[in-house]
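Whether sequence alone determines local backbone shape is best considered at the level of individual chains. Part of our work consisted of pairing the sequence of a single chain with a tokenised description of its backbone. This step matters because it turns folding into a mapping between discrete strings. For completeness, the protein is quoted in full, as a sequence line and a line of structure tokens:

_____
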Amino acid sequence: MEYPQEKVMPYGKEGKKSEQVEQMFDHIAPTYDQLNHTLSLGIDRSWRRKAIHTLRPYHPQQMLDIATGTGDFAILACRELQPQSLIGADISEGMMNVGREKVRQAGLADRISFAREDCTALTFADSTFDALTVAFGIRNFEHLDKALGEMCRVLRPGRHLVILELSTPDRFPMKQLFAIYSKIVMPLIGKLISKDNSAYTYLPESIRAFPQGEVMQQAIQNAGFSHVYFKRLTFGICTLYVATK
């Protein structure tokens, strides 16, 4: 199935989305963390903790964090869950280079490693991981169904997928407030800090186009997962999805 966000691209309609996303994140990597926390008013940290908390009862030992970016989620998951190993996978070497330095400074280089991966064609063997996480990156995937299928393939049976993604509130007044924030404030702050106007025009467009709630729940089920549920966080600005293979 084709989803609307697959056609939303950072730098225009020519070329592949995956290549444009890689270029965009390589470009904004140095300022990405500052932007992330500024744009979310710091609430993104609590969202990450909630996502990691869902995995705590299962004590995963081999973890894969897809679209790991600069490694914030990977570092927090490693500290909170104490897995034997965690691989952070991303298409952008620029983002992962920032992450590698953060991991080194955190003293976690013996447990966290990074790998450049195409999420629609992962190089890992079937049933490799105990837990798979994606935080704020799945809306950037060029082929959502393929990516979800690959996640299911590399996850062990009975183990868990956790996805965090930005979403658009659907109730008054947050719906209206978020529309103003995403269309005006978000691109302005993004341009000032990152000097990349396209990246932070793309961000709200990709959020609006991404399948949410029940539609995303169905897409995860179609990929082979069961017991899929979702929870809206902070008035629907973010959505947490949890699924079992």
